[in-house]
Design goal:
This protein is an alpha/beta fold. About 55% of the residues lie in helices and about 15% in strands. It contains nine helices and eight strands. A six-stranded mixed β-sheet has the order 3-4-2-5-6-7, with helices on both faces. A two-stranded antiparallel ribbon has the order 1-8. Helix 4 links the parallel strand 5 and strand 6. Helix 3 packs across helix 9 and helix 4 packs across helix 9. The longest helix is centred in the first third of the chain and has 56 residues.
C-alpha cells in the first residue's frame, strides 16, 4: 500500500512539474511579444517626433491633411486705417476700422473668409513693430498672435502706406524677424495701401522709379513680392485687387511646397492645443516666459548672423 501511495505522489509531482514548465514557456513567449510590441511602438513614436523636429529645424512644417485648404495670413501693420486691410481681404467689415492718431487694434484678433473654395484665416496684429518697448502688453500680443495662428502662417503681410515709406518700416522689418525668426522674410509680402493715389498709374513703375532707398531695399529683401490695395474699393475693383493678392499668396505657398512658417513656440502651442491645455493663470505666466525666451533667442540669432 505504501508503495502505491509513493507512486501516486510521484506521478502527481511529475504532472505538476510539467504544468509549471508549460506556464513558464507561455509567460516567456508573452513577454517577448510585449517587448517586441513596445519596442516597435516606441520606435514609431521616436520616428514621428524626430521627423517633426527635423522639419522645425528648417522653419517649416508640411500642412496637416484636411478636406478644406486653409491659408493663414498674419497682417502686420503700422499707421492709420489699419484694420481696413483685413476687412478688404475678407470682403466684409469684420474688424473695426476708423481714422485716428491711436491704433484701432490693441489686441490680436482673427477672422475667416472664403475665396474660390479656399478658407482664408486672417490674424490682425496691433502695431507692435514700431517701438522697442518690452512691456507686458507687448509680449501678451506676441503670444496671442502665436496662439491664434497655430500651427503657423503661410503669409506675413506687411502693410504700409503708398508714398509714406520711412525708416519706421525698416525697423518694423527687423522687428518682424525678432518676433517670428530670421526666416520670416521668406514668407513676407508687402501690401501698399492708398492704391488710388497712383491715379491709374503702374505700381511696378512706381517701385522701379522710386528714389526711396529704404523702399527698394525692402522690396529686394522680400524678393519683389508686393501689391497694392484701395481699401475703399468695392465690386469688381475689390475682387480684382484681391485676386492679385491671392495669386501672389498661392505662388508663395507653391514656392514653399505648402509649408508654413513655424518655430519652437508654434510647435509647443500646437502640442498644448492638442492636449487641450489652456494658457490661463500659472499657465499663462509660463507661456509668456516662453515667449520672452523665444524672442530673446531670435534677437541673439539675428545679431550673430549680422556679425558673421
Amino acid at each position: 500500500m505504501q508503495m502505491l501511495m509513493d507512486l501516486f505522489l510521484g506521478i502527481c509531482a511529475l504532472l505538476l512539474t510539467i504544468c509549471a514548465l508549460q506556464v513558464i514557456v507561455s509567460l516567456a513567449s508573452l513577454g517577448m511579444g510585449l517587448r517586441s510590441f513596445c519596442g516597435q511602438s516606441s520606435w514609431a513614436l521616436q520616428d514621428e517626433e524626430g521627423s517633426e523636429r527635423n522639419l522645425l529645424g528648417e522653419n517649416s512644417v508640411p500642412p496637416s491633411p484636411s478636406k478644406e485648404k486653409t491659408t493663414a495670413v498674419i497682417v502686420l501693420q503700422n499707421g492709420q486705417w489699419e484694420n481696413a486691410t483685413g476687412n478688404s481681404i475678407l470682403c466684409q467689415p469684420v474688424f473695426e476700422s476708423k481714422l485716428g492718431a491711436q491704433a484701432v487694434t490693441r489686441k490680436c484678433q482673427r477672422a475667416t473668409g472664403m475665396w474660390n473654395g479656399r478658407s482664408i484665416l486672417v490674424v490682425d496684429m496691433p502695431p507692435i513693430f514700431e517701438t522697442e518697448a518690452q512691456d507686458q502688453e507687448l509680449y501678451e500680443n506676441i503670444g496671442e498672435c502665436y496662439l491664434l495662428s497655430v500651427p503657423g502662417p503661410h503669409v506675413l503681410l506687411l502693410v504700409t502706406q503708398l508714398g509714406h515709406f520711412t525708416e519706421q518700416e525698416m525697423v518694423a522689418m527687423t522687428r518682424v524677424k525678432e518676433v517670428f525668426g530670421a526666416g520670416a522674410e521668406r514668407y513676407m509680402v508687402i501690401l501698399f495701401t492708398n492704391k488710388e493715389d497712383l491715379e491709374g498709374g503702374s505700381l511696378d513703375e512706381y517701385v522701379a522709379n522710386t528714389d526711396n532707398f529704404r523702399l527698394r531695399s525692402l522690396v529686394r529683401k522680400c524678393e519683389w513680392r508686393y501689391c497694392a490695395f484701395n481699401n475703399w474699393a468695392s465690386g469688381e475693383e475689390q475682387r480684382e485687387q484681391l485676386a492679385q493678392l491671392m495669386a501672389m499668396m498661392e505662388g508663395l505657398e507653391g514656392e514653399h511646397q505648402g509649408t508654413f512658417l513655424t518655430n519652437e513656440l508654434f510647435f509647443d502651442e500646437r502640442i498644448l492645443q492638442q492636449m487641450g491645455v489652456g494658457t490661463c493663470g500659472e499657465g499663462q505666466k509660463h507661456y509668456l516666459d516662453k515667449v520672452r525666451l523665444q524672442v530673446a533667442k531670435q534677437k541673439q540669432d539675428l545679431k550673430e548672423a549680422k556679425r558673421n
